[in-house]
Amino acid sequence: MGINPTHVGSSNRRAFFRLDLQIPVHYREILKQGESSYLLGPLREGQGVNFSGAGLAFLTDRTIEIGTFLYLEIVHPEMRETVRAVVKVIRMMVREYNGEEIVAAVGSFVLIREEHRDALVGFMHRHTVRSPETA
């Protein structure tokens, strides 16, 4: 049995249920420009691997500096709406897998509409209920 690159670790000290789930994540770095203005960096794509109502972990093609703020969108055909949020990168993990470097960013939600958090948690719940592994 090999390493599962989608498993990025877990802890029992969580405020929200977590779910390993592979769905696309689109993100842009929030770049500070002067005292009170910000720009969004180029659109990048990642692969979400672990979600909760408090944040997420996703695979990316590059490291992101800890403390960086990201604007992200989580889009999935089964979700009722696109989840939009601002996350703060709190940890980066780099692992070797089959000779390839796997980079995962862990982010904590800083700004998310409650309806979007509810949509994400609801999607996770529906996925868990249907999942054969939980039967």
Secondary-structure map:
Blueprint: E1 19-33, E2 37-40, E3 44-51, E4 55-60, E5 69-74, E6 83-97, E7 100-112, H1 114-130
Describe the structure.
The protein has 135 residues and is mainly β. The protein has one domain (19-134): predicted glycosyltransferase like domains (Thrombin, subunit H). 13% of the residues lie in helices and 50% in strands. The protein has one helix spanning 114-130; strands at residues 19-33, 37-40, 44-51, 55-60, 69-74, 83-97, 100-112. A six-stranded antiparallel β-barrel has the order 1-3-4-7-6-5. The longest helix has 17 residues, at 114-130. It comes from Tectimicrobiota bacterium. This is PilZ domain-containing protein.
Spans where pLDDT lies below 50 across 5 or more residues: 1-12
CATH class category = Mainly Beta
% residues in beta strands: over 45%
Biggest β-sheet description: 6 strands, antiparallel, barrel
Average pLDDT figure: 80
Strand order of the largest sheet: 1-3-4-7-6-5
Alpha-carbon distance between the two ends: 22 Å
| DSSP strand tally | 7
Protein name: PilZ domain-containing protein
Summarize the structure.
It comes from Tectimicrobiota bacterium. By secondary structure, the protein is mainly β. It is built from 1 helix and 7 strands.
